[in-house]
UniProtKB/TrEMBL annotation:
<protein>
    <submittedName>
        <fullName>Thioeseterase</fullName>
    </submittedName>
</protein>
<dbReference type="InterPro" id="IPR029069">
    <property type="entry name" value="HotDog_dom_sf"/>
</dbReference>
<dbReference type="Pfam" id="PF13279">
    <property type="entry name" value="4HBT_2"/>
</dbReference>
<dbReference type="InterPro" id="IPR051490">
    <property type="entry name" value="THEM6_lcsJ_thioesterase"/>
</dbReference>
Amino acid sequence: MYPFIRYATTIAHAALQVKKGNTLPLSKVGEITLRWRLTDIDNFLEMNNGRVLTLYYLGRTDFAVRTGLGKQLLKQRWGLVVAGSTIQYRKRIRAFDKVTMKTQIVAIDKRWIYVEQSMWVKGKPCSSALLRTGVTEGGKVIETARVLAALGKADWKLPPTGYVAEWIESDQDRPWPPMD
C-alpha cells in the first residue's frame, strides 16, 4: 500500500520548515529521517526494494517543498515525472532502523533534472539512486530553463559530468523491448 500518511506528514513537516525560514537552496543536500516500518517489509525481514523507491519519493517531496519548487508547481499548475532511474543497494535496512535520506540535484540539462538520492543507517550508505526527473505542463516535459527562471535561478548551470553523463549516454543505447 502507498504510504499516504507518511507522504502527508512529509509535506506538512517540509511546509512547517519553510514557514520557520528553514528553506533549502537548490544547490544543497536535503535530508529527512524516517524509520523502517512493518509495512516496508519483505520476506527476508528487511526493507523491500520496491519500497525503497517509493520512500525516495518522500525525499524528493521534502526537497521540492523546501526549495520552493513545490510552490511553483502549484502556482504554475505543473507536475513532476520520473523518466528513468538506476539504483544500487549496498547494505540491508532492517526492522525499525532509523534511516537518513539525502536528496540533491547533481546535473541539469535542457530537459531533465538529475537527482541523486541515498539512504543511510548509522552513518553507512545502504542504497543510492540516480533519477532523471522532469517538470511537466499539460502532460509534456518543459524545458528546465523555465523551471529555473520560476525559481529565480535562471543562471544556474549544472551540466552532466562524470557518472551522470556516462549514465545518460549508456541509457540512450538501451533498446526498448520489442513490440509484439
